[in-house]
Amino acid sequence: MWDKLTVGQFISLYDIEINGNLNIIEKQQKMLSIVEGKDEAYYDNFKYRDLITEYGEKLSFFENIPETNPVDFLKVGNKRYKFVHELNEITAGQYIDILSFSGQIMQINKIAACFFLPMEGKRYQPYGKIPHDVVADELLDAKFIEVYGCMLFFCQLFSELISSTIISSMINQELAQKAV
């Protein structure tokens, strides 16, 4: 099921899961409705044991996210996006946007819009040529597992960069103190 789930569906499922105002039956109906593409009212006449069974069959995948790798390109409808693999390809504007959205799983499409550049033919367009919000909205229809793989890749890369920058900064401070 992970291969069929879109970013928008994932955000909706996550939002339902963390919503403390919904009881378990409401959560199950809403989540089934998203995964199955059916109206919530469809589940109103289910016996509770049947609802639980249906939920268990259709949403058990949600407990374990599979391992995945980053993709070079993302296809959403008839549009293609290039994934930015290199930190040195990131602009200051992208970096600022990444920081403003990071840590907010409910905005994974907005984070992803910082890393996926729209393609025009065989060339990717510069960041910001198409407004960030437009790209973020389009990425709601992207396959979640592909976006997730790229986000994991970039988080690891960014974490390694931060670690090496801190170590390098500490070494530079030590050398500067010895030079004085």
Topology:
Elements: H1 7-18, H2 24-36, H3 48-59, E1 73-76, E2 79-83, H4 92-101, H5 108-115, E3 116-120, E4 123-124, H6 132-138, H7 144-179
Antiparallel strand pairs: 1-2, 2-3, 3-4
Helix pairs in contact: 1-2, 2-3, 4-5, 5-6
Main sheet strand line-up: 1-2-3-4
What is the CA-CA span between the terminal residues?
A: 62 Å
- Total number of helical segments? 7
Rounded Rg: 21 Å
User: How does the helix and strand content classify structurally?
Assistant: alpha+beta
Secondary-structure element sequence? HHHEEHHEEHH
- Give the overall average pLDDT: 84
Low-confidence stretches: none
Helix content percent band: 40-55%
Q: Which percent range describes the beta-strand content?
A: 5-15%
How many β strands by DSSP?
Answer: 4
Q: Tell the overall outline.
A: elongated
The biggest beta sheet is recorded as: 4 strands, antiparallel
Short key terms for the protein model shown above:
7 helices, elongated, four-stranded antiparallel sheet, 4 strands, 180 residues, alpha+beta
Describe what this molecule looks like in 3D.
- It is a single chain.
- The chain has helices at 7-18, 24-36, 48-59, 92-101, 108-115, 132-138, 144-179, and strands at residues 73-76, 79-83, 116-120, 123-124.
- Helices cover 54% and strands 9% of the residues.
- A hairpin with a 2-residue loop joins strand 1 and strand 2 (79-83).
- The chain contains seven helices and four strands; from the N terminus they run H-H-H-E-E-H-H-E-E-H-H.
- It has a four-stranded antiparallel sheet.
- It is α+β, with helices and mostly antiparallel strands and 180 residues long.
